[in-house]
Amino acid sequence: MVHSDSDPPLLNHYGTLLCHSTQCDEPQTRVTMEECQLPLIDLCDLGSDDEMVRRACAAAICKASSEWGFFQVVNHGISSQLVDKMRSEQVKLFRAPFETKATSGLLNNSYRWGSPRATCPNQFSWSEAYHVPLTKVSDEACYGDFKSLREVMTCFAAAMSELSRLLAGILTENLGHWKQASISNICDETTCFLRLNHYPACPISPEIFGLVPHTDSDFLTILCQDQVGGLQLMKDSKWVTVKPNKDALIVNIGDLFQAWSNDVYKSVEHKVVSNATTDRYSIAYFLCPSYDSLIESFVKPSIYRRFTFREYREQVQEDVRKTGYKVGLPRFLLKGSEDLTTTTTTTESNTRLYIPSITAKS
Ligand SMILES: C=C1C[C@]23C[C@@]1(O)CC[C@H]2[C@@]12CC[C@H](O)[C@@](C)(C(=O)O1)[C@H]2[C@@H]3C(=O)O
Ligand SMILES: O=C(O)CCC(=O)C(=O)O
Ligand SMILES: [Fe+2]
């Protein structure tokens, strides 16, 4: 299905950026990547009677989080009926007229489209989204005429929340942090959120991003995508495409877990490439702490300085506001770690990324 430009007006905004951005980054060449199989983990094993099987499963989760920053899970406890129902309600929602989506108070007025802060085409995302805090998910006032969305979204959010806490617990225990702190205790309904993503077909150019390269600013994200494909992630300095698996949810480590684990787990850059003919839908659940939570590694010496989640969000927003780009964790590197343990590289989005070397952990 090809969307007209009026809903949302992505083509207009992109065209304006093309014409008016003076200091544009180099155009990017998109090399077509092979599809990869992310590490696939069967969560059924966590309930095994055999302790060895349970341990092997937990070890696979930690290994994937450290080597890939990404993995997929099956037998995750979220039924295919719930996923299908959620998807059909999501499609109904995004089919509503632009005016309704943007201005009728739907989902806590959290509608966004394109990239309002973009100053050049490389910063533009050909997509629309709702960004709903957990506290608002079951609030009747958020749904207007979309009453049937409320029940399914409430169940879906609860299931994603439970799964995210289970995974965070396993990852924390592996660090030996569990005695000192638990992510579940600091995570907060006001900051955890569901993001409903819609990537309209983009017939004008395969060069346009569905979602610009970024890392997630949370502990971890659980993604439920459809079968269209388009998600790519950085692996060994190359973009690889994730092959959709209808039974699996994708999990990725966010910036906060990378800092908390002193770079044991990796928050990996990812992006969505646009599709010329087919609309794509995904739903992401972001596990975040309360704004005052302190993010610090218990392993010393720390690579990053201690910061609150509020500080982190504000810094990300300020960078995006001023430059169109997120800098993220490199802003919080401790002096010394920066010189001794990092190399620099330039990502596709032309952000300078600092890559702490493996020796930083010892
Ligand atoms: C322009 C941007 C906003 C964003 C960071 C980014 O550079 C690119 C992706 C955006 C995103 C998408 C997922 C999450 O909602 C988010 C909080 C994140 O970590 O990356 C947002 C960022 C944001 O809104 O600050
Ligand atoms: O839609 C996708 O596949 C990825 C979405 C994503 O990265 C995000 O919402 O942060
Ligand atoms: Fe993301």
UniProtKB/TrEMBL annotation:
Tree of life domain? Eukaryota
Record's keyword terms, sorted: Dioxygenase, Iron, Metal-binding, Oxidoreductase
State the Gene Ontology BP annotations. Answer: gibberellin metabolic process
Name the catalysed reactions.
Answer: gibberellin A1 + 2-oxoglutarate + O2 = gibberellin A8 + succinate + CO2
What the record says about family reads: Belongs to the iron/ascorbate-dependent oxidoreductase family. GA2OX subfamily.
**Protein's name in the database:** gibberellin 2beta-dioxygenase
Gene3D superfamilies noted in UniProt: B-lactam Antibiotic, Isopenicillin N Synthase, Chain
Which InterPro entries does the record match to this protein?
DIOX_N, IPNS-like_FE2OG_OXY, IPNS-like_sf, Iron_ascorbate_oxido_reductase, Oxoglu/Fe-dep_dioxygenase_dom
What class does this enzyme belong to in the EC scheme? oxidoreductase
* GO MF entry, a single one: metal ion binding
Q: What is its EC number?
A: 1.14.11.13
The residue ranges of the Fe2OG dioxygenase domain are 188-289
